[in-house]
């Protein structure tokens, strides 16, 4: 009941354009933890009734930003429905009910920090949540437009004046530094599970993005300012040296600051740790908002890995074999003394599948193996040679069976 009241209040702030950025984040978290049907049928429906009776104040908004915000909220609800396997929502008997809500929220839903005369004056972009299960690579432009990218395609991205911003050649999107800018303009590249993609930033920095990753970055870095990008997922960075403009990668609460170096950064929301593995050069890690010159920062040397535990707020640094953590960028799945529960999450991301382990004995089983170009079936067969198990596959879901189950009763093929 408490969450429902808070949701109601935050939705009211959303539609009357008084919501803060922190409150917007809180709203999205509450939506994530709530029943989607309740949100749709109760909260949204209630505010729609207020719209029809003219009880909502209308303030100046930008249509483009409103569309992005609405899409973010409704998309989040749809994604939760899929994850929780809730029943398909049946529309209100009034055929115009939800179309009316959508049209109205397109006009009303805005946040105070986007209340500008034009989209181009916005300094902080709003990012649509990446759906790693979509199977589609997308590029979100600064104005909220979302474009689909084909891995075999070719394209050019230009400004309204026709100046070249970036060009795509197959699996690589490369930005140009040809045009001067006086403000930061962001793009966001979203990579789904089962895919990888290469990005070259305007300063020449190369970024290889692993499956299920999203990166937000300036179309062009500004003179006199740090080169800062934002990552969710995993990426390998080969950073162009520029002593006057440090390169910073933000991953949740952590910042990784470099001048010119190569390192791997992994930050998946479902993982407890944010891990940074340094291959060449030097990096300094510090919490967002902290002073880098104090003893709150940690510096790595090549061959070290830093793990920041998001739950305990602790950092550990140790020597590692960097190949284990960077092999993915060359197409390898490399596991060295890894527990199956860790291997499972990597396989799920790599193949865009889900693996349900009902055996009750595989989670902590340790494996060492290297794969390249093998199918998921071939990988599972290899693991079976070490520890026997049975599994069934239904579409993109694999179920590792409890051996006490009578397989004859299962209506699916066993492997």
UniProtKB/TrEMBL annotation:
InterPro entries reported for this sequence: FecR, FecR_C, Ferrdict_sens_TM
Per UniProt, residues of the FecR protein domain are: 193-283
Q: Which domain of life is it from?
A: Bacteria
**Which segments cross the bilayer?**
95-114
The keyword Membrane is assigned to this record: yes
Domain Protein FecR C-terminal, first and last residues per copy: 332-400
Q: What is this protein called?
A: FecR family protein
Q: What species does this protein belong to?
A: Arenibacter algicola
């Amino acid at each position: 009941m408490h969450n429902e009241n808070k949701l109601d209040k935050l939705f009211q702030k959303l539609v009357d354009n008084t919501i803060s950025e922190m409150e917007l984040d809180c709203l999205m978290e509450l939506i994530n933890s709530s029943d989607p049907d309740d949100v749709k049928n109760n909260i949204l429906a209630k505010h729609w009734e207020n719209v029809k009776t003219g009880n909502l104040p209308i303030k100046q908004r930008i249509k483009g930003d409103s569309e992005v915000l609405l899409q973010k909220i409704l998309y989040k609800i749809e994604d939760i429905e899929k994850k929780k396997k809730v029943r398909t929502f049946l529309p209100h008997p009034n055929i115009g009910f939800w179309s009316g809500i959508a049209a109205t929220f397109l006009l009303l839903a805005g946040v105070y920090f986007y209340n500008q005369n034009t989209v181009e004056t916005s300094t902080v972009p709003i990012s649509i949540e990446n759906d790693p299960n979509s199977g589609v690579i997308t590029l979100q432009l600064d104005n909220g437009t979302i474009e689909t990218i084909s891995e075999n395609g070719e394209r050019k991205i230009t400004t309204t004046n026709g100046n070249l911003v970036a060009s795509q050649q197959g699996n690589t999107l490369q930005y140009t530094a040809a045009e001067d800018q006086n403000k930061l303009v962001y793009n966001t590249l979203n990579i789904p599970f089962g895919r990888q993609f290469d990005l070259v930033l305007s300063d020449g920095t190369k970024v290889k993005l692993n499956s299920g990753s999203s990166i937000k970055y300036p179309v062009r870095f500004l003179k006199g300012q740090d080169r800062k990008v934002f990552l969710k997922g995993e990426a390998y960075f080969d950073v162009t040296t520029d002593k006057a403009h440090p390169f910073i990668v933000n991953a949740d609460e952590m910042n990784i600051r470099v001048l010119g170096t190569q390192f791997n950064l992994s930050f998946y929301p479902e993982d407890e740790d944010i891990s940074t593995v340094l291959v060449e050069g030097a990096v300094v890690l510090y919490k967002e908002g902290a002073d880098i010159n104090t003893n709150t920062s940690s510096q790595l040397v090549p061959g070290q890995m830093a793990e920041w535990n998001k739950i305990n707020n602790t950092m550990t640094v140790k020597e590692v074999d960097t190949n284990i953590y960077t092999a993915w960028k060359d197409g390898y799945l490399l596991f060295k003394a890894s527990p199956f529960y860790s291997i499972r999450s990597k396989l799920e991301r790599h193949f865009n599948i889900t693996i349900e382990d009902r055996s009750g004995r595989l989670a902590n089983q340790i494996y060492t193996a290297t794969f390249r170009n093998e199918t998921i079936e071939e990988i599972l067969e290899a693991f079976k040679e070490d520890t026997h198990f049975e599994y069934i596959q239904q579409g993109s879901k694999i179920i590792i069976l409890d051996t006490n189950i009578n397989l004859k009763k299962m209506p699916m093929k066993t492997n």
